[in-house]
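Format is chain and fold; as here:
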Amino acid sequence: MPQLRKDPIVDRWVIIATERGVRPKRDRTQAKRLLEDANGPFCPGNEDATAGEILAFRPDGSAPNTSGWTLRVVPNKYPALKVEGELGKRGEGLYDMMNGVGAHEVIIETPRHDLQLSDLPARDIEDILWAYRDRLLDLKNDSRLRYGVIFKNHGAQAGATIGHSHSQLIALPIIPKLVAEEMAGAQRYYDFRDRCVYCDIVEQETRDGSRVIHETEHVVALAPFASRSPFEVMILPREHHCSFVDSPAAVFRETAAVMRLVLRKLKKALDDPPYNYMLHTSPFGESALNHYHWHIEIIPKLTDVAGFEWGSGFYINPTPPEHAAKFLREIEVEL
């Protein structure tokens, strides 16, 4: 059983997941082959290579765990956390820990191994967002869980080990430290100004325009003022929505179109860089927060996090976000 252990100095939780360590060891040649494998475990016809599906979109009405799907959600074969068991919160002297209870799921975004997320039609990306919503809504019914982290690793440098386009969801019994810090900072801003800081960012950035990459009626993509890395992108709704799952259909539709456009621009501008994206939303059961605002962060892996960053918590970004936004705005891609 995995464990969650808390650092008593900085209140940071760490997952000790011994079963992740027994994943099959692969040398570089094997890893490269798996990234490029056109008949891998996520491909149609190989449904028996994964655990049974939790959710699937099957326009043709085909049977579960067979071909015919356009999107599948399955349990991770080597989960960081496990659904079974009780939290078992306990202490050993000054150290706090609990059992590694949670959920770890894989969203297989397309049956096509040869397509990246940026290659998919906006309607298919919208389906992915709806799948995220469906899974978050289901998992929040588990009273042991507090938060669902949705993320994507694209490319080996970003942590991907399978090339077939997919993202992941890890549901936690705690609120992650980064999200808690965001929420605390947003709360301080709201307490002083009686306004949501994210709404103010949207208003100021769209008025100024220098860091806006693309905007629609309901959604904006921008380069954050204090970007941690070159070409970092934030996508967020223009209207106030703290909970991703409570967003209206128009926001999902436009978020999908904006994600596709931004990813295609990044792919063309930066020669298909590895990247991570993360969805930050309000915790389970907190759907009426005036101070918080869901958003997606896209971070291309263009620089290395090294000793200074680890030792200080500072990030060194050699590309001003104004320059990055202007460059991406001017990149023309097919819609």
